[in-house]
Amino acid sequence: MKEQKLNAYGMAPLTAKHYFVYGMGNFASQLSWTMVSTYLSIFYTDVFGLGTGAVALLMLIAKVWDGINDPMMGTLMERTHTKHGRFRPYIFVGAIFLVIFTILTFTVPGFGGPGKLVYAYITYIGLGMSYTVTNVPYLALPVVMTRDPKEINKLNAAQMMGMTIGQIILNLFVLKLVLWFGKGDEAAGYQSTAILLALLALPMFWAVAIMSKERITVKKEDQGKISDGLKLVFKNKNLLCAMMYSFFNMFGILGRISVAVYFYMHCVQNFAFITIFMMMQMIVGTLIMPFTPKIIEKFGKKNTAILSMVIQGSALIILFFGPYENIVFDFVVLVYYGLGYMAGPCGSGMMVDAIDDFDDKYGYRNDGMAFSFQGTAIKIATAIANSLFLVVMGAFGYQGGVDITPHVQQGINIAANLLPGIVFFLAIIPLAMYKLDKPGYMEGVRERLTARDKAKREAEAAAQEEKAAVAE
Question: How many whole angstroms separate alpha carbon 258 and alpha carbon 253?
């Protein structure tokens, strides 16, 4: 039997199958979460029958709770030890609940008044918790699948490609499916579309849970107290910088997505191009994503992320001040905006570097807790962004079913372009404070970790041999 070739870190190299399956996990996430982030606001205001103020408060409360339960999930993951690993069992089980709550969230109940609002709170919060159980362990998988930084970059690029392809497909087909299923009944259309997409996502999540093996393990006796783990998260300055970058980046991206459909419907007012504009930046992002690992390898994660923030921030500010009624202008600016997606894997990659660097310094891996805090940062960012942008639109007079005046258009333009554009520039601040981008530094860290792991395995093997010899 041919001996399997190992990489420089003593592990069998990951194959195309691993990258494909892992990327498919984020594609599956988008079948639920892009449906939510892109269309839930307009579903709540224009179909479900809630006011913008009620929707803004609902999303704020739900996301703040998501931010609280993410660290709880991270702690639970880190204290889980099964033959299938620490993370994968939660993906398998969480996907079931994600399917159920996706369908319930896009279902209009047969009652009105306060009962309908309570229903919205229960289903949306349940959806967020299900997403936490599924997605926090999913995002943490690369750090336990390999130590090779190139493989980690490829895994993160694969999940970002899965995300952008999922977003493209969702934006291309969701409204068409709603019309086709609903046949004039938008409520029925949204519910049937949610059922279809949620059921398609389930086997994809299960494939990730089964095939993405956890090869870097942590024993119970090597874990410290939960309180110590929390303290160490806040002691890891590079990890905090990476989290803050993710906070501002997702504030801009997801906040804009939640109100972009209003901009294209009521400001651009060219319904033939709504679907194209909603997915234009994602198409560009998907096209450049295969080249992202090479770009990161050449310029580094930090510099790539900074360039991305400049591109995305300037693009939206140009769109705000420019003649957005001009379709050619919109097309060019959105292509330029899409180039910023090249930094997609950078946030997760910097997180992995910070976790490995901390492990090298202190001998403590808090990967589950770290990625749960990243989830907290992203969800709080999304909560604030969704609520703020809807409040801005409401302050300028937007209401579902009410005529759109130039004053209302100005509010929508501010919410969809100016505010997220400014936020992207704010993301450069934590990036400037991130210190793990020196050439060769992380290679040295991982060489030491590999040597330490090898020495530990050899010591354990020697102890077992000695124990066996004594028994004989």
Answer: 9
